[in-house]
Amino acid sequence: MLGLTSIVLAAGLALAAPGHAQNAAEPAAAPAAAAPAAAAPAPAATPAAATPAIADPTLDASGKPFSKAVPGMGEPIPGAFTLQDQVTSTGREAHWFHNTVLLPLITIISLFVLLLLIWVIIRYRRSANPEPSRTSHNTFIEIVWTLVPVLILIAIAVPSIRLLAAQFKPAPKGAVTLKAIGNQWFWTYEYPDHGVNLTSNLLKEQSEVPAGQRYRTDADGPRLLAVDQRVVLPVGVPIRLQTTAQDVIHSWAIPAFWIKLDAVPGKINETSFTIEKPGLYFGQCSELCGARHGFMPIAVEAVSPEVFARWVASKGGKMPGTPAEPATSSANDSADDTANAASDAGAPTVNATAAPAVTNKPATQNPAGLGQADQ
């Protein structure tokens, strides 16, 4: 029975803690080589004529979504002994399973075992039982303590397997793909279908940055969770999350989505989810990845699909299905002139392939810029 208690208790704790605890304070000094810098400047925003001027409180003047952090929503609740409110269907099912099945079951088993221990200590102590029983077997008790744990494990296994399958179901057609790449110690993001790349760093406190540089405010989010560039995702649209890493194993975790997916170098892990409620949601790297492991926060801003499309345009990307802009005549003329010259000279035409652009740069290659956390 003690072994069963340990198994059930471990399962409950694993579900109850999808993220990891925050570090109490940032180290006084971090190695200069480990400090990630800013991402490359985003391409110019789409001209006003191509983007309808729709008033939306979640957009600032540049078209960038900027929802203010709401205490208790999408972030740890100080002093609360409970899971965060869930905003995905899988999260709500897991929340119910934890609160309705696992927690009561763990409590009942733990109290039952505790009462048995107390009863044995009192009833069979030496002074109360000087002549110990020589009974070595009891068929009824052995059947009960074998059968009852099996029934309990079956009762837990049925919803557990269903929940596990829901956590790793493939994303449907038309899902928005987000690729999260872990680095020591910051996150880079790619939207392969939209042509948008981001580098996200921790926002430091005002006292920790030089004058004139961006620092964390209450609107950005809690200390050690606010970032300079948030992930933006649409509400009500399936999201295909892919994770990988550049150096060591990281883990992309958002407790409010019931998402915790390891980012392993050389491997792509994938899951899917759908955000049901707009807002700002925070998480952290949940895999011990080095000295600054506690300073890899994640901030996801969930907005309407219309606002998401405008944000993609402001980042120089485009929505899938949007026709590509025709090449300029000067570029076409230059290419034609080059081909004609090679043909006239009688030289064979060589098909050259351009080297792919590097999107996942190490920290030392990212250009420095205003408002980044780790300079």
How is the secondary structure organized here?
Layout: H1 2-16, H2 89-123, H3 139-167, E1 176-183, E2 186-191, E3 196-200, E4 231-234, E5 238-245, E6 250-254, E7 259-263, E8 269-274, E9 279-285, E10 297-303, H4 305-314, H5 329-344
Parallel strand pairs: 1-5, 4-10
Antiparallel strand pairs: 1-2, 2-3, 5-8, 6-7, 6-9, 9-10
Helix pairs in contact: 1-2, 2-3
Structure description:
This protein is 28% helix and 16% strand. The chain is an alpha+beta fold and 375 residues long. The model is unreliable at 1-57, 327-336 and 338-375 (pLDDT under 50). The two termini are 54 Å apart. The chain has helices at 2-16, 89-123, 139-167, 305-314, 329-344; strands spanning 176-183, 186-191, 196-200, 231-234, 238-245, 250-254, 259-263, 269-274, 279-285, 297-303. A 5-stranded mixed beta sheet has the order 3-2-1-5-8, with no helix packed on it. The chain has 5 helices and 10 strands, in the order αααββββββββββαα. Helix 1 (2-16) runs antiparallel to helix 2 and helix 2 runs antiparallel to helix 3.
